[in-house]
């Protein structure tokens, strides 16, 4: 617990140094100092608030849980819109970028695995058995994820390597007595 308190104090100090002392500030002053943070909160509440039954009278804990959940996950990690990162996350910019990249890779890989399964007429309920540790399909899935995670700038190389990995995945999903292509 002691480390958490020290981390919070460090972040508060960094936030104050970067954006000004917010202690005792009015809502209007906070909006001026932390414009991206306020915009993110407003956008999250308007996009997701009605589904969470948030009202102006909701408890602070409920609102914080909402922002840590829907606001952070859906409003920052999985947003499709261009986002000015809220000032309160200024120290976490690099980590958030890595999480977004990893999430994107996992979503793409999952979609490719499911589509490959559909093409190969493998039911999604059968996938866990075929993805058992050490199986050909599991190894092909690992190669696919590695390809998506690689840092590269050549689109043709990415497409070629992903196509090869998906082909290996499809080959592994087929029964040995079936021919692929």
Walkthrough of the structure:
The protein is mainly α. It has helices at 2-19, 27-33, 35-48, 60-77, 93-119, 127-130, 136-149, 155-173. The protein folds into 3 domains: 1-33; 36-84, no CATH class; 93-173, no CATH class. It contains 8 helices and no strands. Helix 3 crosses helix 4 (60-77) and helix 5 crosses helix 8 (155-173). The radius of gyration is 23 Å and the shape is elongated. Residues 177-181 have low confidence and may be disordered.
Number of DSSP E strands:
0
- Helix and strand run: HHHHHHHH
**What percent of residues are in strands?**
under 5%
Largest sheet: none
Q: How far is the first residue's CA from the last residue's CA?
A: 58 Å
Number of DSSP helical runs: 8
Q: Measured on Cα atoms, how large is the radius of gyration? A: 23 Å
Shape: elongated
User: What proportion of the residues is helical, as a percent range?
Assistant: 55-70%
Mean pLDDT: 79
Domain count: the total is 3
Q: Given the helix and strand composition, which structural class is it?
A: mainly alpha
Low-pLDDT sequence parts: 177-181
């Amino acid at each position: 617990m002691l480390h958490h308190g020290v981390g919070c104090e460090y972040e508060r100090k960094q936030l104050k140094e970067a954006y000004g002392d917010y202690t005792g500030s009015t809502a209007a002053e906070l909006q001026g100092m932390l414009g991206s943070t306020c915009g993110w909160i407003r956008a999250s509440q308007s996009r997701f608030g009605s589904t969470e039954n948030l009202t102006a009278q909701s408890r602070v804990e409920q609102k914080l849980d909402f922002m840590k959940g829907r606001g952070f996950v859906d409003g920052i990690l999985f947003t499709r819109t261009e986002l000015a990162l809220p000032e309160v996350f200024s120290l976490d910019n690099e980590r958030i970028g890595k999480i977004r990249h990893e999430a994107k890779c996992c979503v793409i890989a999952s979609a490719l695995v499911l589509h490959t399964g559909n093409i190969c007429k493998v039911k999604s309920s059968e996938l866990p058995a075929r993805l058992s540790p050490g199986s050909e399909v599991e190894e092909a899935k690992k190669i696919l994820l590695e390809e998506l995670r690689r840092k590269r700038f050549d689109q043709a190389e990415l497409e070629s390597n992903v196509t090869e990995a998906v082909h290996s995945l499809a080959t592994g999903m087929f029964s040995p007595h079936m021919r692929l292509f």
